[in-house]
């Protein structure tokens, strides 16, 4: 897919104030610092589109971007940052659960996973929730330039093996690096496929 235009539309703290659900929507989520903003900027080819945050976990807003006048890209607030209080974690969970259940134009959620780390309970639980709610999702392994190719393959394989313990069918996954622009064609091609 060629990105002709990517523009910021709005930020919301409430799902019912999001843009009208008239276009297919693709949401990006993951633990704070996973590389979500960098990935969004890489995919859209606009360096400053999503803010790479200096204060992880601070913003709890749903950010909508309009791509090629034909689909929404959504930057959801990150989770799992240690310094976030229990209160704001509960508020995050409530908003995200509501979004996942009620956003009728949601076509797919991209769950970002730092390729360097062992499977984390918070990510596994989040994907479990998506599965239980019947929300379509795929996994995106990030920052793979930080590892050798074989190490990335090893980590991804062991991650998927762990997932296989609780899933009959594994979600599709993508290997990416915002730094080296790896996985861009694959992710955008997938969105194009789903949009068709
Ligand atoms: P967010 O909090 O999930 O939006 O993460 P950011 O995009 O702000 O990235 C967090 C940190 O990881 C920043 O220092 C980025 O420069 C770095 N980072 C993000 N993606 C990559 C990547 O693909 N490769 C490398 N080497 N660093 C990355």
From TrEMBL:
Location of the EngB-type G domain: 22-196
InterPro entries: G_ENGB_dom, GTP-bd, GTP-bd_ribosome_bio_YsxC, P-loop_NTPase
Domain of life, source organism: Bacteria
Keywords: Cell cycle, Cell division, GTP-binding, Magnesium, Metal-binding, Nucleotide-binding, Septation
Cofactor: Mg(2+)
Alphabetized PROSITE patterns for the sequence: G_ENGB
Keyword Chloroplast annotated: no
GO MF: GTP binding; metal ion binding
GO BP terms: division septum assembly
CDD domains documented for this protein: YihA_EngB
Task performed by this protein: Necessary for normal cell division and for the maintenance of normal septation.
Family assignment from sequence similarity: Belongs to the TRAFAC class TrmE-Era-EngA-EngB-Septin-like GTPase superfamily. EngB GTPase family.
NCBIfam families for the chain: GTPase_YsxC (TIGR03598)
Protein name: Probable GTP-binding protein EngB
């Amino acid at each position: 897919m060629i990105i002709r235009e990517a523009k910021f539309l709005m930020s919301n703290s409430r799902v019912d104030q999001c843009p009208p659900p008239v276009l297919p929507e693709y949401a990006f989520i993951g633990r704070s610092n996973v590389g979500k903003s960098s990935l969004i900027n890489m995919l859209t080819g606009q360096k400053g589109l999503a803010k790479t945050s200096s204060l992880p976990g601070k913003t709890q807003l749903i950010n909508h971007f309009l791509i090629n006048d034909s689909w929404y890209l959504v930057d959801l607030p990150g989770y799992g940052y240690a310094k976030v209080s229990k209160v704001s974690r509960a508020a995050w969970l409530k908003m995200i659960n509501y979004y996942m259940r009620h956003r009728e134009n949601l076509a797919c959620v991209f769950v970002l996973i730092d390729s360097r780390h062992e499977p984390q309970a918070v990510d596994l639980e989040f994907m479990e929730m998506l599965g239980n709610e019947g929300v379509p999702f795929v996994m995106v392994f990030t920052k793979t330039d930080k590892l050798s190719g074989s190490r990335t393959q090893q980590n991804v394989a062991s991650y998927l093996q762990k997932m296989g313990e609780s899933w009959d069918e594994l979600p599709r996954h993508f290997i990416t690096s915002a730094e080296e622009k790896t996985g861009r064609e694959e992710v955008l091609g997938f969105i194009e496929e789903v949009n068709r």
